Amino acid sequence: MEQIVGRMMAKAGLIGISTARCHSASRSGAVIAAALSAVLAWTPAASARAAPESFADLAAKLLPSVVNVSTSQQVKPGSQSQSERRRLPEMPQFPPGSPFEEFFREFFDRNRPDSSPRRTTSLGSGFIVDASGLVVTNNHVVADADEVTVILHDDTSLKAEIVGRDAKTDLALLRVKSSKPLPALKWGDSDTARVGDWVLAIGNPFGLGGSVTAGILSARQRDINSGPYDDFIQTDASINRGNSGGPLFNMAGEVIGVNTAIFSPSGGSIGIGFAIPSALAKPVIQQIKDYGRTRRGWLGVRIQGVTDEIAESLGLGRARGALVASTSDKGPAAEAGILAGDVVLTFDGRDITDMRRLPRVVAETPINKRAKVVVWRKGKEMAFDVKVGELDEREEAEQVAAVPRGDAKPTTAEALGLSLSSLSGELKQKFSIGDDVNGVVVTGVSANSPAAEKGVRAGDVILEVGQEEVKSPADVAAKVEEARRANRKSLLLLIDRQGDLRFVALRIDKG
Prior knowledge:
Blueprint: H1 2-21, H2 26-42, H3 56-62, E1 66-75, H4 82-87, H5 99-110, E2 118-130, E3 134-137, H6 139-142, E4 147-151, E5 157-166, E6 171-176, E7 198-203, E8 211-222, E9 232-235, E10 247-249, E11 255-262, E12 273-277, H7 278-291, E13 297-298, E14 301-305, H8 308-313, E15 322-327, H9 332-336, E16 343-347, E17 350-351, H10 357-364, E18 370-377, E19 380-387, E20 389-390, H11 393-397, E21 418-422, H12 425-430, E22 440-445, H13 450-453, E23 461-465, E24 468-469, H14 473-485, E25 490-497, E26 500-507
Antiparallel strand pairs: 1-2, 1-4, 2-3, 3-6, 4-5, 5-6, 7-8, 7-10, 8-9, 9-12, 10-11, 11-12, 13-20, 14-15, 15-16, 16-17, 16-18, 18-19, 21-22, 22-23, 23-24, 23-25, 25-26
Helix pairs in contact: 1-2
């Protein structure tokens, strides 16, 4: 159909040229134009929206709700280390009256250990989310500030207090007092935004004040290694220094992101900017508003990713979900009956597409809520009812299990490449293995073997093979033969390394 329409449009174009020269061709042009209209009417409407003729009306509506955030901080004298101070050169000599003399004197006086304290300022962006005076910005904009000032679109300056901050998502909430209601913005649904949709960014780049840039949503679910809940929107709308904390809008004028970072070798925009999606930002801001801090849900599991090999070894079909490496004693998951080796497929009705999604979904779940968790265990789905706990900093650091080096790298080696031995007092002492550990100890790993590729090393203790306990090398060998007879391509091992549990999928041959 597209080829047909294309050909008809091409013909119509030729006739269009002809009609400028020959009036008699108008009837033919009308006939083909009518035919083209009929074809287009028959063709299903395209779902993509046309580019707007102008962003002017939308920008005029949104600009009053976007603010500049100015911060100041007192810097103590001599804040440089001794090595930094030693690297400072002597002040150069200039002719009397040289314009450079005053500049360099100020620089060197400022960096002397006995100089007076000074104040530094920085600029960022923010946006109003409540008419009473609540303003959203980035945590890194206000983290070290002694004073914070919000400058409205009409240049009104208002002192701001920090209601709360969250370093994990780089979000902060400010409060200002105004004699009149402020124009507040509405949150949009970032989950419904699609790659290719038009977006608008407004902020305070380089301190220039409200600046509007437009682009498209370039990608979703970007992990830029800035925190445990990375799930950034990528956009090519120009974002520069000073845009941090500003809003990213959809074409309905709703906030679907908080502009946070850019990827740039030079520090300027090269068309790769990142925004915190509203689906993540909105609940965090609401928690800060309600409690002055974040209150995240806690499941009580240590998890790792599901590779293709692990999925195959578990009969899962395709790589998805989050593999439970261990559970916390008396944690929500353990009390509900979830075990190490289970793969979490859904949590509270939301699909867990990969390991990174589970911590975020759990964190967003209200504390003490009863959530249904569906896991994959021994070839079938099982459901558990979990009462969500509250996450603390220590528990958060333990959520993701340490994965052996090269866990995601596939291998086609024909043997596991392991030398095994039953646990003995001598081996426990040699490898510092706890007395309460039971299993099969790895005494050697062949070079270039599947085990070596996956980071297995001497001293590791194999607790389970194929989700069944093993207590001797013969048990491991039997499991390998059983997998071969079942034409399995890989075998899942649960390994204990100095109390750190993790699953490793090793490729096996068919015998």
